[in-house]
């Protein structure tokens, strides 16, 4: 089972409401435990000392349910006209290549398809995330150095 398949499985288990999911395939064993506040994934070999143990916590924040009202409805309508740049993985979002360096993009910047817009750290690997759209950054949805989920919106772009 590869990393992307494990990510997809975590996402599906999270949506299903199941509190514990176990899977065994030969010597590979996967256990996903969920609670209201946090999801924790433990991957362990079925046979002791045959493979390393990997722990990958995935933290989910509560979803804000908007109250009906003209301000919220207008905001939702505005967001629909924008293109989204989404996270291709679970990890930690960074706007800049280093602590003392300037961010890849700011609100108002033009981006082209293939432009690096941020970095997501996953399992001690720093992955440059490239825009798949062309336009102007109108909103940065995620705070710097915060956890992000797979398919979470990172940026809104006006085409």
Blueprint (SSEs and pairs):
Elements lengths: L2 H14 L3 E6 L2 E7 L3 E8 L8 E6 L10 H11 L2 E4 L4 E4 L15 E2 L4 E7 L2 E6 L4 E6 L5 E3 L4 E6 L1
Antiparallel strand pairs: 1-2, 2-3, 3-4, 5-12, 6-8, 6-11, 7-10, 8-9, 10-12
Characterise the protein shown here.
The protein is α+β, with helices and mostly antiparallel strands. The chain folds into two domains: 3-59, no CATH class; 76-158, OB fold (Dihydrolipoamide Acetyltransferase, E2P). The protein is built from two helices and twelve strands; from the N terminus they run H-E-E-E-E-H-E-E-E-E-E-E-E-E. The chain has helices at residues 3-16, 70-80; strands at 20-25, 28-34, 38-45, 54-59, 83-86, 91-94, 110-111, 116-122, 125-130, 135-140, 146-148, 153-158. Strands 1-2-3-4 form a four-stranded antiparallel sheet, covered by helices on one side. Strand 3 (38-45) and strand 4 (54-59) form a beta hairpin. The longest helix has 14 residues, at 3-16.
Which features would summarize this protein structure in a list?
single chain; 159 residues; alpha+beta; OB fold (Dihydrolipoamide Acetyltransferase, E2P); 2 domains; four-stranded antiparallel beta sheet; 2 helices; elongated
Q: Mean pLDDT across all residues, rounded?
A: 77
Number of domains: 2
Low-confidence stretches: 36-63
CATH hierarchy class name of the largest domain: Mainly Beta
End-to-end Cα distance = 37 Å
Into which percent range does the helicity of residues fall?
10-25%
Strand content: 35-45%
Tell me, what's the shape?
elongated
CATH fold-level assignment of the largest domain: OB fold (Dihydrolipoamide Acetyltransferase, E2P)
Give me the CATH superfamily of the largest domain. RNA polymerase II/Efflux pump adaptor protein, barrel-sandwich hybrid domain
Order of helices and strands: HEEEEHEEEEEEEE
Radius of gyration from the CA trace? 18 Å
């Amino acid at each position: 089972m590869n990393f992307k398949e494990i990510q997809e499985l975590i996402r599906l288990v999270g949506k299903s409401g199941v509190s514990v999911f176990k899977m065994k395939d030969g010597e590979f064993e996967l256990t996903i435990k969920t609670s209201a506040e946090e999801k924790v994934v433990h991957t362990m070999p079925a046979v002791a000392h045959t493979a390393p143990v990997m722990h990958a916590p995935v933290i989910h924040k509560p979803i804000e349910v908007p109250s009906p009202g003209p301000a919220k409805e207008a905001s939702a309508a505005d967001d629909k006209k924008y293109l989204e740049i989404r996270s291709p993985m679970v990890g930690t979002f960074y706007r800049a290549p280093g602590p003392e360096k300037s961010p890849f993009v700011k609100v108002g910047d033009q981006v082209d398809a293939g432009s690096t817009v941020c970095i997501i750290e996953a399992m001690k690997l720093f992955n440059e995330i490239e825009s798949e759209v062309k336009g102007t950054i109108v909103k940065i949805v995620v705070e710097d150095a915060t956890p992000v989920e797979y398919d979470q919106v990172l940026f809104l772009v006006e085409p």
